[in-house]
Amino acid sequence: MIPSSLDLSNHRIDLRLVAVENGLTLSALAADDVAWLGAAPSALFSVTVDGRPHDATSLTLEQVTEDTSTAGVRHIALAFSGPGFTVTAHLKAYADTALIEVWQEIRNRGDAPIRIKRIDSLDLNLAPVDGSLFYYTGNWGSEFEPHRRRLEGSIRLESRSGRSSKGDHPWFALSNPAGHVLSASVAWSGNWALRFDPLAAGGWRLSGGVNDWAFFKDLAPGTAMQTAPVVLVLGPDLNTVSQAYARVGRQHWYPTTSVSAKVPVEWNHWWPYEDAEINETVFAQNVARAEPMGFEVCTLDAGWFGPSDAGTFWEHYRGDWHQVNEGRFPSGLRALGDQVHARGMKFGVWCEIEGLGVEAQVARDHPEYVALRDGERVGCVCFGNPAVQEWAYQTLRRLIVGYGADWIKLDYNLDAGAGCNRTDHGHGAGDGHFEHINGYYATIERVRRDFPEVVLQACSSGGLRIDLGLARRTDMTFLSDPDWPVHDLQLFWGASTMLAPNVLLHWTYSQWRNLNPPPYQTFNPHDPAVTRRVWDYLCRISMLNVFGLSQKLPDLPTWMAQRSVEQIALYKKHVRRFVKDADLYRLTDQPRRSGEGERWVAFQYSLPDRSEHLLFVFRLPGAEPARAIRLQGLEPERLYTIGGFEGEPIRQALGRDLMTNGLPFSDLLEEDSALLKLA
Known about the structure:
679 residues; alpha+beta; 10-stranded antiparallel beta sheet; 8-stranded parallel β-barrel; 12 helices; 39 strands
């Protein structure tokens, strides 16, 4: 029997669906006494098949099933029939949150192929609101650039680059005049779109999912496709919404290993050496210094593969992962891994498994692997080809079994745009990039199944593919190639609106070998201006998430090496349990790398039981001399003891005073910081 209504409400969200004629509509979507839906029926999803649009109000609802086998999750599947096809709409509601997730499976039940053109995993009619739309754009070195605009006219957020966060970021937050927030995120690593279109009667149609630009998919009889999930979150403010994303991510989405669960401290060779100065001797020297300093992972970045010539350039030979550059590593990578393991650390290896260099031998040996658009190389292999998926799996398996890799950094340094449109190796002319993403997902899922203790780290020219799709399949994601301090803080503020801190990785201000770095990427550990106070400031910025360094460890000044030992020990003992488990509050507005915006930056971590809190405070260049930082989420009548970890004076204050009047800071210099615990 088909129910006349479905109620998925909990004490955080009012969520109801009701039958209309033969179909179904979302009739209520509200939280904190704020209703977000308009009077017009909300279709929940929509799909264009053979040129005709269909949705949950026009298709025929045939069956409703519910799965509660996963603790804290209600999974409703709504089976609809259409002319020659079926749509199964999935809706997940997560306990104790105002977060839901929707996606669909479309199956061809007819005798002839059907063409899918536009697939909106989410399709809602929102009530009129004088709203403010907050979203980010991203490019190399300028990830999480904030934008705020009034909700008026038609607005389209999207990526057409082939990378989820190059262009717009796959996330937004819509605020009403009282500050309540509706946020959505497309859990997809390729091209996506989110649209706001004004309705004639007032309000907006919100739709989104996989981008319909340059996309179509021909479904053969008996075959099916799955749409990209879209996550929707409601809350009284942005911090609450962000905490919902993080809590559900930690409990239900993010994979972990015993290594990533520790929130480990990583050293990576890349910026001070690149591929020009790295070799097995240099790497071994750094490994020898990393162990006593307290590092837990040592990662060999690009430059290890390709012809046995120390002068080769890494980009040209991407794809030739079967070759180790013996000009740089005559003993092979297994010997390096053994050295790292002998010192009790984990061995990381970089691999851009999707990339294809202009000199790669694999393209000549296997032309069927090559992604082409209109006969020209896209710059990658095509994971829409099942043979590429098998080749990639065997390659990654060799890194793990043959070389002893415990951690694989999966990079992606190209813009595939609409992707491959050849039709001779596993996909159609209109869905090459769509199937590339699905094939890539399937490959790394297979690696994780077979090697569940290997850490998989996502990266894409820094932070140009940061999304909930990869976050469900990798242990952590890298935020950006540059890592100068104000840039770092802008990134962390932005990334933490959607992802928990324990799945964000960035390094402390790195020393670059590059002769043409960005203007502010100028760190020199031997600069007299880099004092202990400044180094603490730089390290604490990286401590906000997974902590790492990319420095020449043997060349660090003695005092800086020793201070790094102390900071790493402090992170391990006191900080990372908060990074791993605590709710995050952004206590100040987002700082801007341009020098505009907030110049005092503060973050508060609060353990779920609210027994302890951790406070990071940073005074940036150009900040006023003093600021009172107002905390959040404290017990008003509780007397809190406030202190540091290295002999700072102990203070006490009531929770209501800390939330109303704030904790004053007047003794921090520019490029200075405080790290305090409240209990």
